Amino acid sequence: MMATMCADETATRLAERVLALAGGATGAAGIEVVLAEPGRVHLSIGRRDDLVQFKGYFHGGVISGLADLAAGGAVTTTLPPGRAVVSISLHVNFLAPARGERLVAKGSVVKVGGTVGVASVDVVTIEADRELLCATATVTFRVVGAATNN
């Protein structure tokens, strides 16, 4: 029981760190942290009219932005406090229309060094309780000092 509580507390702290470092983008868009553990972050956003393109699919910019945030969160969870990341390169492959009720970006670390980190992301839509892969991404980051607002 104690191990579960510690794991839950760690996940909560990591989720808070991911949201804090992502800034206003997460709150404004309604992004939620589904999973936060060292090296992995899953972010989710529900379907809204302002997030879809003219055919009713999640917009490519929304997909790309969510992938960037999930990848950055995954790399950030491996860094010591006081360190954060900024994107250097974002490569997205769109594989299928994102037509579900919810979009989920599943980021995981590929490699993190002292100055550069790389993460991969699978982006799925949730439609009728089924996950459908709609995009994949690879994101490269520069590791930097995190600004603090106290």
How would you explain this protein's 3D organization?
A hairpin with a 3-residue loop joins strand 4 and strand 5. It is built from three helices and six strands, in the order H-H-E-E-H-E-E-E-E. With 150 residues, it is an alpha+beta fold. Strands 1-2-4-5-6-3 form a six-stranded antiparallel β-sheet.
Percentage of β-strand residues: 35-45%
**What is the 3D shape?**
globular
Largest sheet: 6 strands, antiparallel
- What is the count of DSSP helices, taking H or I runs of 4+ residues? 3
Total number of strands = 6
- Give average pLDDT, whole number: 86
Which stretches are poorly predicted, pLDDT < 50 over at least 5 residues?
A: 1-6
Structural class: alpha+beta
In which range does the helix fraction lie? 25-40%
Q: Gap between N and C termini, in Å?
A: 35 Å
Q: Order the strands across the largest sheet as they lie in space.
A: 1-2-4-5-6-3
Order of helix and strand elements from N to C terminus: HHEEHEEEE
A few lines on this structure:
This protein has 3 helices and 6 strands, in the order H-H-E-E-H-E-E-E-E. With 150 residues, it is of the alpha+beta class. Strand 5 and strand 6 (130-145) form a beta hairpin.
SSE blueprint and pairings:
Layout: H1 2-22, H2 24-29, E1 32-37, E2 40-46, H3 60-76, E3 83-94, E4 102-112, E5 116-127, E6 130-145
Antiparallel strand pairs: 1-2, 2-4, 3-6, 4-5, 5-6
Helix pairs in contact: 1-3
Which labels suit this protein?
150 residues, alpha+beta, 6-stranded antiparallel beta sheet, 6 strands
